[in-house]
Specification:
Order of helices and strands: HHEEHHHHEHEHHHHHHEEEHEEHHHHHH
Number of strands: 9
Strand content: 5-15%
Radius of gyration: 24 Å
Number of domains: 2
Largest sheet: 3 strands, antiparallel
Shape: globular
């Protein structure tokens, strides 16, 4: 199999685009935040380079410490004449748990950034609440990363894995409560006759945040098994969060200082994460030179939960995680023992050694031996053609494993592993586009008050931008008036085809 190295420009380009967008949005921020943002970008670039260097240097050290794995879906892994893996597995050892390096570099970047984030404030006007929230966020991410590394080393049972995000999130939620942040939601116009203008959730809102932390952490962990997928989906989500923050800073007027600063804090946390993840993605892309391990899944999932809490867009984060949610719901019949459908230890795709492609992996069982609920779910999945089912001897069947990865292989057929990863990441991108369409396109229909951007200076007016460069005008329209873009897309594409 010819190796395809990951194009270096493909990882540096998002950083360049992010830097340009942040430089553009920085003009509307106070001077101290401009300086902090510039330092944050500089430290992120250093984090990108440090991650690449350290992972390349410490890879053999991890292998010697037995933190290594063998890529089962490669020609270099030994198989018999029938293409079946030889046990014990023999192949090229690859350094595992490299998410540990990524998380460590990220935490160090955030630690070094602390003086630059708050040094410009005088003592009598020091933002103690914001600093406490920032430190609690770093502590929460550190705790989750440490527990992820423990999982890589000692292979924790699920009964211990599930409560870990609960415990890790407590410091941040405690600060969130102490700062008196909101725990309610606005009610859409169509339901105000029933619930009123505002619903105070109280303790229920904290339960929702705890659920988000647990779900985002484990959802990335179970949506894995393909080179580049864990880091790739995290990069797409991180880029989407960064776009959301930039758009909101353009839209929210300057008098809403609290909301603007929450998005700035979110940017401070997300830009370094995007930098170190892009560096790791370059090494984890097909054919993977390193494995990220459970540490990165814990680290990435908790970072998304923390950023959504700090930036006050936890409901939007759920929309960004739609593929992970679909994968979890689709996997439930195999994840929960009371349903009874067998769940193999590894549900990753199978490798076809004859042509170098990956195809569906299967779980083998006798439908008559399933529990009543398992029988019902199996019949529904088979009848709706949501799984591939092959008949076997003695009444047994082979059913494709219930993961979104296997479902995509079932729909589109076998393909190279990098092609499969690109298809899955395309679904992630479409999910983000759907999120932006719902977040900005429906806001004006559901709520009376929608925050608009402040009047722009003459040099940034749409007429001036249009005369200089039509492409910049399109960028301005998307950033400053995304709801207009969503309405245009709806009228020109969706409405044209479905509502003639």
């Amino acid at each position: 199999m010819a190796e395809r190295s990951f194009p270096p420009g493909l990882t540096s380009l998002p950083l360049v685009v992010a830097a340009a967008a942040l430089a553009h949005v920085a003009w509307g921020l106070p001077t101290n935040l401009r300086i902090s943002l510039a330092v944050n970008l500089g430290l992120s670039v250093l984090g990108y380079m440090a991650t690449s260097s350290i992972v390349a240097t410490l890879g053999p050290t991890f292998v010697k410490a037995n933190l290594r794995g063998i890529d089962l879906n490669k020609e270099t892994t030994k198989r018999d004449a029938n293409g079946v893996l030889v046990r014990p597995i023999e192949g090229i050892p690859i350094p595992e748990s490299q998410g540990t390096v990524t998380a460590a570099v990220y935490i160090l970047v955030l630690s070094v950034f602390i003086p630059f984030a708050f040094a410009s404030y005088e003592l009598d006007r020091f933002p103690h609440a914001e600093m406490a929230e920032y430190l609690a966020a770093v502590l929460t991410i550190t705790f989750a990363s440490f527990m992820g590394f423990a999982d890589d080393v000692i292979d924790l049972r699920w009964r211990y894995k599930i409560p870990i995000p609960f415990l890790a999130t407590l410091p941040l939620l405690s600060v969130y409560y102490a700062n008196g942040n909101h725990t309610g939601v606005m009610v859409p116009n169509q339901l105000r006759w029933l619930f009123g203008d505002f619903v105070e959730l109280g303790f229920g809102f904290y339960l929702f945040l705890l659920w988000l932390a647990v779900f985002s952490t484990h959802a990335i962990n179970i949506y894995a098994g393909v080179n580049g997928l864990e880091v790739g989906q995290s990069v797409v989500i991180a880029a989407s969060v960064l776009v959301l923050n930039i758009v909101q800073l353009f839209r929210i007027p300057e008098e809403f200082k609290e909301y603007r600063e929450s998005h700035v804090q979110s940017i401070f946390l997300m830009v370094p994460f995007l930098a170190v993840s892009l560096s790791l993605l370059r090494l984890n892309w097909f054919p993977a030179k390193v494995f990220v391990g459970d540490t990165y899944c814990y680290f990435a999932g908790m970072t998304f939960a923390v950023v959504s809490i700090v930036g006050h867009f936890s409901k939007t984060m759920v929309l960004f995680l739609i593929p992970q949610l679909l994968n979890f719901l689709y996997s439930c019949p195999q994840l929960f023992p009371f349903i009874g459908i067998p769940c193999p230890r590894h549900r990753m795709p199978n490798f076809n050694a004859s042509d170098g492609t990956v195809c569906n992996s299967f779980a083998e069982f006798n439908p008559d031996d399933l529990k009543p609920l398992g029988k019902l779910i199996f019949v529904v999945l088979k009848s709706l053609r949501l799984v591939r089912v092959c008949s076997g001897p003695d009444g047994k069947v082979q059913m494709s494993n219930l993961t979104l990865i296997n479902f995509v292989l079932y729909v589109f057929g076998p393909c190279r592993e990098d092609v499969l990863c690109c298809r899955l990441l395309a679904i992630q991108v479409l999910s983000s586009l759907l999120c932006f369409s719902l977040r900005f396109g429906l806001a004006s229909y559901l709520f009376d008050v929608v925050l608009w951007c402040s009047p722009l200076p003459e040099r940034c007016s749409p007429d001036v931008i249009w005369k200089r460069c039509p492409m910049l005008w399109a960028e301005w329209l998307w950033i400053c008036r995304p709801e207009v873009c969503c309405k245009i897309l709806w009228a020109q594409f969706i409405g044209k085809f479905f509502f003639k």
